[in-house]
Amino acid sequence: MSIQFDVRTRVREDLRDLVPYDTHPYPNVIRMDLNENPYPFPEAVCQEIIKKLNSDVFTRYPDPGAVELRQALADYNGVAPDNLIAGNGSDELIQLIYLTFGGNDRTVLIPVPTFSMFKIHARITGTGVEEMRTGEDFAVPVQKLVERARAGIDIVVLVSPNNPTGTVIPPEDIMYVLENTSALVIVDEAYFEFKRETIVSHLNRYPNLIVLRTFSKAFGLAGMRVGYLISNESVIKELNKIKQPFNVNSFSQLAARTALKYRQLFDEQIGMIIEEREKLFMELQGLSGVTAFPSQSNFILFRTPVNSDKVYQELLKGGILIRNLGKVPGLEDCLRVTIGKKEENAIFLEKLGVILRDNK
Ligand code: PMP
Q1: How many independent structural domains does the chain possess?
Q2: What CATH code is carried by the domain that includes residue 284?
Q3: Chunked in runs of 10, what are the mean pLDDT values of the chain (360 residues)?
Q4: Of 214, 225, 226, 298, which is best to mutate to test ligand 1, by the most ligand atoms within 8 angstroms of its C-beta?
């Protein structure tokens, strides 16, 4: 006799309508969809990583405390190793924060539009979500945010520079939130290296602050999955109780700390990305009917006079993959393009120009 097992009814009721993250399995396209670093990983860094590889990297469990990586990160950020936790991408750390401080009857307040995983991980961890729409220019209404946060919000999310808008939250606004609510405030600085404005230097003043960073963007290590968070020791202590012990694998720890050692090589790439971004921004603005939003990051959000589904599909047919955000409230007919290499940006722009002309 076989047992009755209807998996759909066994899944947690609050998670039944989740959809898996779309991995865009398109071969042979120029990828301008995930805000990665488009340049090759520097040869010198690659060689040093290979030189340091040994049998233990493969056979032994990784260092659960990522001691060497955290020391390198402490030097990079002017904090102590005890202010740091490394994660399997900052995605893992978002979930870790919710697992530790969310769940039960806790609620997170998220200004939107922003990085979707803040909401998805909240749902997965059973954390309530309240969204607050930002204004026309995507500025976070901090006064309104604080008023709401004071009335029963446990966690506040601030992403600066924000994804997908590229908008920066002024440091004084971030401090206003930190000073006027007892909620835990996550400041996601995934794109820090493209703006170099950080709240980390004020860490000592704010017991409720957690800063998130990643190696996936400026450091070109998206494939290694390394992120980190910076906070006060007391917060770190609590998070470490919940963290998976061997969360960052040995190879990734080695890659990340070697990348940090050679960070001036990435500075060159970051400079080129910023230069290309400014050029592409002007060019997008020059296309009839297009509105490009100023960005302090490695991508640009823009609105087209043509339906964004159409633009997305036509670009894909032409071998270019970008991000269609047309279904996000407030971002109707908007798309996000990651800054590519000079020649990739030129191809993108040319194809976009043709699509807009043909669909007038
Ligand atoms: N935060 C923001 C704002 C992001 O845009 C991203 C990546 N798109 C992440 C976090 C996640 O980065 P990671 O690769 O470190 O998980």
Answers
A1: 2
A2: 3.90.1150.10
A3: 91 93 82 97 98 97 98 98 98 98 96 97 97 95 97 97 98 98 98 97 98 98 98 98 98 98 97 98 97 98 98 97 97 98 98 95
A4: 214
Q: Which atom of ligand 1 is nearest to the CA of 114?
A: 3
Cβ(194)–Cβ(161) below 8 Å? yes
Q: Whose CA is nearest to atom 2 of ligand 1?
A: 190
Instruction: Kindly state if the Cβ of 216 falls inside 6 Å of ligand 1.
Output: yes
- Ligand 1 site, residue 270, Cβ cutoff 6 A: no
Q: Which atom belonging to ligand 1 lies closest to the Cα atom of 91?
A: 16
Segment holding 228, helix H or strand E = strand 227-231
CB-ligand 1 contact for 159 (6 Å cutoff)? yes
| Token pair belonging to 172 | 């004084």
Identify the residue whose tokens are 């602050």: 209
ipTM above 0.90, yes or no: yes
Would you give the distance in Å from CA 141 to the centre of its chain?
21
For residues 299 and 331, membership in a common domain is answered with yes
Q: Which domain holds residue 343?
A: 20-41+264-358
Q: Report strand pairing: 30-31 vs 320-321.
A: parallel
Q: Evaluate if pTM is beyond 0.90.
A: yes
Q: What is the DSSP string of 328-347?
A: STT-TTEEEEE---HHHHHH
